[in-house]
């Protein structure tokens, strides 16, 4: 791992996002083409999935979203960069997490709008190479947006339904140069925690929590699962239902894992394969294998993790079990 300040890569991503935000519905492809590679690869969540090239991403994702909710305000809470541990630090990635805010006034995904202010939670991982963005992974909390419009397609969640906050310390926008030793300390802690978690079948017993997490830790999960705080709240709101409801099949690894300053994280596309053998999320049990596309971002405090932001492609996870949530909502819309 070589010392690198990531300022050039961060500048490219910030300019890219600024151009997308300023572009009209018909101009997004051109705005994207300025800074993405000709062979640009985009990983999205259901129903977008993987797309190739800026034209496809603009046509299928950004254009329809802007048409429904634009103009969009980008409200980032975390911005960081680092070299990728997964490929032995050969590639550089820039990560941004926050909310896209708009006024949802026309249909999106075939579903009627709320006609109110709406927040779409997002995180993006961008691989920057030779002055261009070569690939992007975009994770969204689509269910959270639908909940704001009155759609409630799933049983009650075990965690709280909230507008996920940024870091408690309000220092997540790492636009300046940071001590690489701090980023490596964060990455080493994340690696140790993940190794321990996977080694235990992705369960979080008390000794795991005490070793890697502060007692006042916060876990900001996606809609359908919800948010939890502190050991007892995390156990009640997430880890216990997760462990009792799902049968662990395998960990598929990650495409990117980085750390900068006190922040770090990863994405897997997919990360886990499980079976919903115990009726997870209040849904009927199933013996089908289903994938979880997951993002985890973390804030480190000293030698422990203290905040965790999670994105899971729940719509994809459920569709693999035979439940197409979006299709059902289009067939049986809100009353």
TrEMBL record:
GO terms for biological process: polyketide metabolic process. It comes from the Bacteria. InterPro entries: Cyclase_SnoaL-like, NTF2-like_dom_sf. Keywords: Plasmid. This is Uncharacterized protein. It comes from Octadecabacter arcticus 238.
């Amino acid at each position: 791992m070589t010392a690198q300040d990531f300022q050039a890569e961060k500048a490219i991503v910030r300019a890219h996002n600024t151009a997308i935000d300023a572009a009209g519905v018909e101009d997004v492809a051109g705005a994207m083409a300025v800074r993405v590679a000709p062979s640009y690869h985009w990983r999205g969540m259901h129903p977008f999935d993987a797309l190739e090239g800026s034209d496809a991403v603009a046509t299928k994702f950004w254009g329809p979203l802007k048409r429904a909710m634009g103009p969009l305000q980008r409200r980032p809470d975390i911005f960081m960069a680092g070299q990728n541990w997964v490929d032995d630090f050969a590639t550089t990635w820039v990560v941004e997490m926050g909310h896209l805010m708009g006024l949802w006034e026309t249909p999106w995904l075939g579903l009627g709008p709320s006609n109110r202010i709406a927040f779409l939670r997002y995180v993006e991982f961008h691989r920057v190479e030779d002055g261009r963005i070569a690939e992007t992974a975009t994770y969204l909390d689509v269910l959270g947006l639908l909940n704001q419009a009155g759609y409630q397609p799933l049983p009650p969640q075990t965690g709280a339904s909230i507008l996920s906050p940024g870091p408690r310390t309000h220092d997540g926008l790492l636009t300046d140069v940071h001590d690489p030793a701090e980023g490596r300390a964060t990455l080493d802690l994340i690696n140790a925690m993940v190794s321990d978690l996977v080694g235990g079948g992705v369960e979080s017993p008390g000794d795991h929590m005490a070793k890697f997490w502060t007692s006042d830790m916060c876990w900001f999960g996606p809609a359908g699962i919800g948010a939890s705080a502190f050991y007892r709240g995390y156990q009640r709101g997430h880890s216990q239902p997760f462990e009792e409801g799902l049968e662990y099949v395998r960990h598929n690894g990650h495409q990117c894992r980085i750390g900068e300053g006190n922040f770090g994280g990863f994405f897997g596309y997919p990360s886990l394969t499980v079976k919903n053998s115990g009726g997870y999320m209040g849904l009927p049990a199933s013996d089908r294998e289903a994938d979880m596309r997951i993002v985890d971002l973390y804030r480190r405090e000293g030698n422990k993790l203290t905040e965790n932001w999670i994105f899971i492609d729940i719509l994809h996870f459920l569709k693999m079990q035979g439940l197409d949530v979006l299709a059902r909502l289009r067939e049986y819309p809100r009353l």
